[in-house]
Structures are given as C-alpha cells and as structure tokens.
Amino acid sequence: MTQGKPDLGEQAISKVAELGITSQLDEVEELNVDIRTDPGKIIQGQLDSVVIEGKGMVMQQDLRVEAIEINTDKIAINPLSVVFGDIELTHPTEAETHVVLTEADLNRALNSDYLRSKMQDLKITVEDKPVTIKPEHITLQLPGDCKFVLDATMLIRETGEKKQVHATAIPHVKDQGERISLEILAAEGQGLNSELVTALLNELTELLDLRNFELQGMTLRLKGLDAQAGRLVLEAATTIREFPS
Questions:
Q1: Which residues are CB-contacts of 166 (< 8 A; sequence separation ≥ 6)?
Q2: Helix runs in the chain, H state only
Q3: Half-sphere exposure (Cβ direction) of 82: Cα atoms closer than 13 Å
Q4: Global confidence as pTM
Q5: How far apart are alpha carbons 110 and 200 in whole angstroms?
Q6: Is 105 exposed, middle or buried (0-12, 13-18, 19+ CB in 10 A)?
Q7: Cα–Cα dist 165/155, whole Å
Q8: 169 forms bridges with which residues in the sheet?
Q9: Out of 121-130, 168-177, 220-229, least confident range
C-alpha cells in the first residue's frame, strides 16, 4: 500500500466509489473508501489496495449494520473507465469483510415491516389444529458465549389468543459459508410446539442471510461468526466483480 496521505488521483477515485456505494443504501452515518496506488499504476490499470469502511449503514430488509470493513489486495481495472468517473474491474478480486451487528440492530430488523409482513399469515399447527399466527413482538438477546436468546409474543388470529415463546439457540456456519443455521438448545412457552419455534428461527436465519449484506457486484461467503455480549461479529470472504456505480 502506498504510504502517507492519498494524492488527488487516489482521492478522486475513492470519491467515485463512495458515491456508488452510498447510492445503494437507505441510510449511512459514515462511509470512507481509501484507494491506494500511484498515477503510473492507474495508467497500467492497477490499484494497490482498497479499504471500504462504513458505520450505521442501513441495507436490505431495513437491516442496520453498526460497522463494516472490506479490505482488498491489488485490483485490475480499466484505466479509461476512471476518466469517465467509473471504476471498471477487468478481473474479479478477492477481499476480506468484517461486519458488526448490535443487538439493537437485529431487534430493529426482526420487528421491521418487512419481516412482519412475511409472518402475517404464517400457517402452523397448534394443539393439532391448523392456525394462522401473527407476531406481536420479537426480542433477541445476545448474552455472549455464542448464544441467541429469542422471546416472542405471537397472536393466533382464529382465537385471538396470545402465545409466549422463549428459545435459546447457537448459530453455525453451514453449506460452506452459504448460510447460517440455528441449533436449538432449549425452548419453552405457552402452547409451545416445534413448528412455532422453527418458524421464528427461520425468520432469524433469513435475516442473517449474507445476501442481505452484499453490495452491487459483491458476493460474500461466511468464514466465521461470534455472538458476543450485545453484538454479532461476522467474518466473510468476498468476491468483488464490479464496484457499485
């Protein structure tokens, strides 16, 4: 990486990338793209490295990310694309991505209009009878030790009865980083059955689908996760095919 402060050329290319990423987000508190190279390498179509750092980014499904950092090595670009205010990759490049989600971020998404609308008419069986359930409120706690604790109040539309569910689960990386699964350690509640718990956990795993964290032209593959006290940390390998425009 070039040492010292970025020159005007690096700053200009970085600003192009920042604008492209910002255009994809509903909200962002802070975003910085640091592209390092030198003028001679730009002409040859090379960038030494790119670091993307964001805070308070609201992405798909009303999912807020407390912090995200993407680090690449050398990148091959079309030098003419820079002249026209774009960054066109000539080859895909690999990067490392670090994502931090707070307990509050996850609860915001779990109670978002998007997920609520998906569960408005969820059909399950309670006490051997088919019913339709609606989420009243869902709360996720991250106590540490890589555990999720989920509390939910569910309304049975047919009877107006409310069911309370409490479950503890451990997340695992599955399918070579393609998805996250949740292993149930314990579950209890009124009129509890496995279908109800499974339905809730399915919504949580869908929320944590890595595609929700992808920007245009980027694909993530989960390498590891750590459910710490109050926050969830994800580490992913990233393939970048194009920069957001």
A1: 149, 150, 151, 187, 188, 189
A2: 8-22, 39-43, 79-83, 103-110, 113-118, 194-207
A3: 22
A4: 0.85
A5: 10
A6: buried
A7: 11
A8: 148, 184
A9: 121-130
